[in-house]
Structures are given as C-alpha cells and as structure tokens.
C-alpha cells in the first residue's frame, strides 16, 4: 500500500477547500488545470531536495507529486509494520496541518498504486481489497480527494486515474469525476546493460496537449477542439495526427500550418501561443570526461571460497548463525537451494533464471555473470574534498588500479528555433489591444556551472537541416550566422540572440520561413 501526496507550489496559508466535478479539481472554489512533476525523495540525497524544488518552481510546475516509501520507513530492517502505516502517515500530516482543508499545501492523496491488474487476477478477493482500501482511506477524513491509479473499479468518491505514455483515450468510471493523469511517462526503465530509453520532448508535449483537449472528434489528419463561454471567451486546439506530413487548416477564416504529429494551442481562437512540435528549449550534449584525479592507497583482500564438495557443504532448515558456522574464518556464508516448478501447469520441471539479483550482487552491478553497469553514480553531496573511502566487493576478480573517476559534463549545447516561433507574450500584447511591436523569438544557450562557451561549432540562419550534433546547412544560409553567434556568445556562460533577418544583415531567402540552428561548445573556465 502506498500513499501519495500532491502538493501545490506557492499556495497561501489561508484555508482552502478541495473538491471536484467532471471538469477539474476545484481548489478554493476555482477549477484548476494543474501541471505536476514527480520528485521521489529516496531517489535523491537530502542535499539535492532544495535545488529540485527550486527547479520545479522555475520550470512552472503547479504541483509536486511524491510517494511515501513504506520500505524506507521500516521501524527495523525487515520489519515492514504495514498495519496502521497509512493511518500513521495521514495522522502525521494532519498534526502538522498539511492538508489543504487545514490551510496546508496537500491537495490530493493516493491509496494503492496500479493495483488494478493484480485485482483482476485475484477476482473477488482483489475487488474486496480495493473496496476496503478505499473505505479505509476516505475514513481518515483528510478533507481532500483520494485517487487510485490504474484501478477501473475505484469506488466512489475515490477518483480512478490514468498512468501511461498516452492518456487521451482514458475516461474515469463515473461522469462526475475529472480526468487525472497521475503518471505521464517521460521514458522507461533501463535494464542492466541495456539501452537508455528516451522519449522525444515533442512527443511528450503532444501527448499532454492531446490529453488536455478532453474530447471532441477529428477529421482526416487534423481537428479543432473549441471551448467557448457565454461571455464570448474562446480557446481552441488544432491537431495533426499524421506522423509524416504537415497540413494546412482553415479555422475562423484564418490559415494555420500544423507540423506532423503536433497540436497548436490558441487561447483566444486566433493566436497560436504553443505548438508541441516547436519546443524551443536548449538541448545539452553530455559526456563522461576524465577528472585526472588519482586514486591513492588501494588495499586488496582476497577471500578464498571453499569448493562445493561433500566436506564443505551440509543441509539444514532455515538460516544459521554465521559466526558459529564459519568460526569467524570468513566474512561470507553461501546458501544454495533448489525448487521444482510446474511449468505452465503441465507438470514439467523447469529451469529458473534469476531475474532479480539480491542486494549483494546488485551493489556490484553484475547478475548471474552477465555484463552490468560499467559506471556508477556517486552523488556529489556524499563526497568530501579529500580522504574519500571507496569500498568494492568483487566476486569474479578484477584490477582496482584500472578504476578511474569521470565527471558527467555538458560538452555542447544546441538551440533550434524558427523566426515565427509561437510566443505567449505576443498573444498577451494583442489581447490587451496594445500597439507595441511583437517580441521576436530568441535562441537561448547556457553551459553548466563553471563553464563558458568556448566556440561555435555550427550556426545557420536560413533552412538548416538535422538535429543537435548533426546540423547541416540547407539551401538557404546567412553567411554572417557564425560571426553573429560568436560575437554574442563566446566567453559567456549564457547568451541569447534574436531571430530576425535584420540581425543577420539581410534576408538570405525572402518569402521563406527561416530558422536559426546553433551548436556551441562548452569548456571549463580557466
């Protein structure tokens, strides 16, 4: 059983109420569209928490979602003490007045986590457990709604929510409950020795925008979801579901161009303030660079393991007192066991492969002799300026003198922005009837701490091709591109350049939509 709390950033100290209807959560009488991010505190060191929260606020998040890890809070090793755990955690929150109903920041709680598939396998007992868990949670009287993710049978008033890569087809089990996406998957787990699964940010933006549309229909490769009110307020989503071709759309007597697999958001049914295929954020290229730090004073100890013959093995039930068995001559005592499995209920013995390694082997990154990690992350908050002690346990041999320290560093940064990139400030200017000149889009580059931009590897204002790390000039190119970027950025930790033909001397190709693509090299400060 897992309790999840969702916290609003920047909520005032005045008392607020949290309810819901079919459209949204209602906080202090106001429906809210909330953008949330998960921070799992056991997966980062305490020294990192403040910086993570600051980055969440700077990034525009309304909410932080976190899990209470029952296995991290064991009273003693191996003693999970599940009975009463949820009540204990909730009462701790209530004592500190942390729920929104008490004037605190917690607006939502979750009971259980993706239990639906397991409940379906168990049948009636599984459904009974879901009902019991929901009743128990609601009975704790937190004053805020409860949710269950991936649980279609979540009993009222608990809201069933969606987890997945795409949740636009999801709908709650009752018409009076809102659509909530508790886990928008930004990637997937990395297996030992396997590739790192990365999801393009444009696809993630597309899936979130598509989820926010909440309904409607589409025709061919595009559709318009229009929301209007009696007062005349209007907002629209224009969508292109084709993965290969851009399309032109006529909407409200205006023409719009939609890139493949993208959604344009028009908060006033006229101006595009965001398109999911035009995410103009910087892309950073990372490399593992040697630190040239010497590791001194290696001491190695070999522990010989006895052969598994009759003289060194015996059978017993249960675990033994290790020091008495080994007579303190070894730090290690090995256990082996066997089992007979009914393979697919056909009665044929099966060979089992251990897919989950125990703590001893996982710490070394090797599972059943297969290749594991070659690099291990050492949180910088754990390191001292000097006199750090590194202890390794290696089962199959190795040479510690070949171990080196590397530092994950930003080696280059890229930006790729069109000259008419959607700009929300422009929409705000027009909506308020101001006559000032619209803001031109800009590229923004910044290196990591202790670095500056040492050179410009690529720069082209025109019709460049490719992506970060493999940009190429297109048929249209402003000859001054490199000079403009070099003058503005070299020697700086961060810089920005306005995208306009005037800034590059002249228009290299009139009547053509142009873009600025840049790759800059980051180097340590002298």
TrEMBL record:
Positions of the SUEL-type lectin domain: 437-523
Annotated EC: 3.2.1.23
MF annotations from Gene Ontology: beta-galactosidase activity; carbohydrate binding
Catalytic reaction equation(s): Hydrolysis of terminal non-reducing beta-D-galactose residues in beta-D-galactosides
Hydrolase listed as a keyword: yes
A biological process from GO: carbohydrate metabolic process
Transmembrane segments: none
Keyword annotations: Glycosidase, Hydrolase, Signal
Signal peptide: 1-16
InterPro entries, A to Z: Galactose-bd-like_sf, GH, Gly_Hdrlase_35_cat, Glyco_hydro_35_CS, Glycoside_Hdrlase_35, Lectin_gal-bd_dom, Lectin_gal-bd_sf
Pfam family for this entry, one: Glyco_hydro_35
Keyword Signal annotated: yes
EC class (word): hydrolase
The organism's place on the tree of life at top rank: Eukaryota
PROSITE patterns, alphabetized: GLYCOSYL_HYDROL_F35, SUEL_LECTIN
Record family assignment: Belongs to the glycosyl hydrolase 35 family.
Protein name as it appears in the record: beta-galactosidase
């Amino acid at each position: 059983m897992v309790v999840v709390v969702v916290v609003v950033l920047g909520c005032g100290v005045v008392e607020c109420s949290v309810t819901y209807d079919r459209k949204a959560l209602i906080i202090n009488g106001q429906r809210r569209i909330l953008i949330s991010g998960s921070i799992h505190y056991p997966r980062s060191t305490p020294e990192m928490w403040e910086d993570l929260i600051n980055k969440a606020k700077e990034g525009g998040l309304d909410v932080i979602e976190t899990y209470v890890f029952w296995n991290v809070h064991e009273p003693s090793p191996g003693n999970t003490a599940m009975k009463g755990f949820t009540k204990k955690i909730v009462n701790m929150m209530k004592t500190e007045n942390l729920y929104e109903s008490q004037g605190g920041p917690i607006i939502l709680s979750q009971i259980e986590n993706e239990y639906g598939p397991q409940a379906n396998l168990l049948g009636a007992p599984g459904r009974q457990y879901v009902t019991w868990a929901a009743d128990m949670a609601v009975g704790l009287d937190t004053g805020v709604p409860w949710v269950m993710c991936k649980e279609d049978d979540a009993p009222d008033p608990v809201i069933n929510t969606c987890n997945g890569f795409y949740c636009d087809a999801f709908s709650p089990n009752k018409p009076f409950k809102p659509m909530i996406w508790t886990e928008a998957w930004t990637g997937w787990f990395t297996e030992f020795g396997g590739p790192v699964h990365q999801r393009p940010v444009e696809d993630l933006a597309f899936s979130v925008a598509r989820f926010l549309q909440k309904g409607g229909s589409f025709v061919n490769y595009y559709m318009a979801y229009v929301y209007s009110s009696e007062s005349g307020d209007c907002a629209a989503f224009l969508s292109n579901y084709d993965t290969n071709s851009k399309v032109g759309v006529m909407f409200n007597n205006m023409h719009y161009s939609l890139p493949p697999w993208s959604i344009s958001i028009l908060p006033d049914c006229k101006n595009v303030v965001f398109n999911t295929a035009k995410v103009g954020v910087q892309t950073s290229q990372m490399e593992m660079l040697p630190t040239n730090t010497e590791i001194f004073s290696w001491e190695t100890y070999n522990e010989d393991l006895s052969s598994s013959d009759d003289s060194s093995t015996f059978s017993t039930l249960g675990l033994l007192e290790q020091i008495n068995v080994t007579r303190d001559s070894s730090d290690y005592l090995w256990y082996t066991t066997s089992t007979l499995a009914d393979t697919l209920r056909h009665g044929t013995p099966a060979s089992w492969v251990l897919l989950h390694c125990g703590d001893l082997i996982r710490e070394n990154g090797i599972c059943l002799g297969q290749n594991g990690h070659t690099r291990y992350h050492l949180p910088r908050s754990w390191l001292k300026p000097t006199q750090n002690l590194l202890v390794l346990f290696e089962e199959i041999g190795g040479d510690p003198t070949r171990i080196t320290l590397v530092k994950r560093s930003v080696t280059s940064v890229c930006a790729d922005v069109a000259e008419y990139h959607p700009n929300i400030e422009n929409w705000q200017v027009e909506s308020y009837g101001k006559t000032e000149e619209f803001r031109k889009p800009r590229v923004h580059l910044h290196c990591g701490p202790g670095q500056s931009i040492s050179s410009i590897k690529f720069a082209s204002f025109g019709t460049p091709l490719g992506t970060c790390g493999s940009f190429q000039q297109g048929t249209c190119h402003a000859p001054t591109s490199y000079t403009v970027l070099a003058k503005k950025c070299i020697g700086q930790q961060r810089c920005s350049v306005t995208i306009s033909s005037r800034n590059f001397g002249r228009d290299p190709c009139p009547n053509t939509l142009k873009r600025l693509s840049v790759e800059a090299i980051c180097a340590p400060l002298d």
